[in-house]
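Ticket #284: bound-state structure for flavin-adenine dinucleotide.
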Amino acid sequence: MRYDVAIIGSGPAGLEAAITLKIRKKNIILFGKKDSSAKVRLAEKIDNYLGIPAVSGSELADRMLDHAKRMGVEINDTKVSMIYPYGEYFALQCGEEMIESSSVILCAGVAPAKTIPGETDYLGRGVSYCATCDAAIYKEKKTIVVSYSKDYEEEALFLRKYASEVIYIPMYDATGLSLENITVQAAKPLEIKGRMKANTLVTDSGELSFDGLFVLRDQIAPSSLVPGLETEGSAVKCERNMSTNIPGLFAAGDITGEPFQLVKAAGEGLTAAFSAVKYLASKG
Ligand SMILES: Cc1cc2nc3c(=O)[nH]c(=O)nc-3n(C[C@H](O)[C@H](O)[C@H](O)COP(=O)(O)OP(=O)(O)OC[C@H]3O[C@@H](n4cnc5c(N)ncnc54)[C@H](O)[C@@H]3O)c2cc1C
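RESOLUTION: The complex was predicted; output attached.
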């Protein structure tokens, strides 16, 4: 089955795109956190969301989710680790699954400002963003997981079912953390090195060799998520209708650059949805 539109991100941009596409009766799939966006929830008091003054981020997120649910929007809590543009359609790697969609709207929030030197150069050549997708490739091999969130501890345990060794490097406060049959190591990654394939992680406490290295963080740089996607700095380059250089691929919200604001994100989500509808119509 091929969806009309796949939306990546359940923050204000993604949810607005989703409800607009539901109104236009499109067959959509929405990926993101079930509780919307950590960023929205962090705001103590929001004063510039038109019509809802002095609202807390948490309340606004709940209202957005409730609105989306009423419109029949469901959230698929799976991280999309790769989007392949194939001309007529897109293939999306979501965990172990691959799904197809005729168009895509990227609403994944601000891209990470910093990657580990060498990370993007070796992506797909010893470096991966998804342990559940690529675990089987590293059967009986030595692996390292650099994890930016507690949420990825499960993914490391899954990887350990295949790999002979998993070294887990938490980039968050993980005092006292213990994971079964996994070495939890405090270190700061400085560089990924190798030749044809990556094989060494340089850290502040020495070098670690590996067959496979997993970098697990919520946000993936847009150009790593979609091969060939044009960016300006870390933001996705867009036209006024939110189209990108890849036909059928649109972007909205913080991922398109400043200002990083809720109303701008929601507005771009709506524009991107309208543009996706137009694109689908042009394809018949
Ligand atoms: C403390 C704080 C206070 C703020 N206060 C205000 C304010 O008062 N007013 C204002 O207008 N703005 C405020 N903002 C900014 C506002 O929160 C953002 O501009 C807004 O959340 C951007 O929405 P978005 O949908 O573009 O991205 P986000 O809200 O960042 O949502 C991104 C979504 O994408 C998902 N995602 C990312 N990558 C993937 C992937 N690969 N696969 C699947 N899902 C993925 C994430 O899980 C998340 O659900 C504040 C931000 C912070 C941090």
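RESOLUTION NOTES: The pocket of flavin-adenine dinucleotide is lined by residues 8-14, 31-33, 37, 39-40, 42-43, 46, 48, 79-80, 107-109, 218-220, 253-254, 260-263, 265 (CB under 6 Å).
TICKET STATUS: resolved
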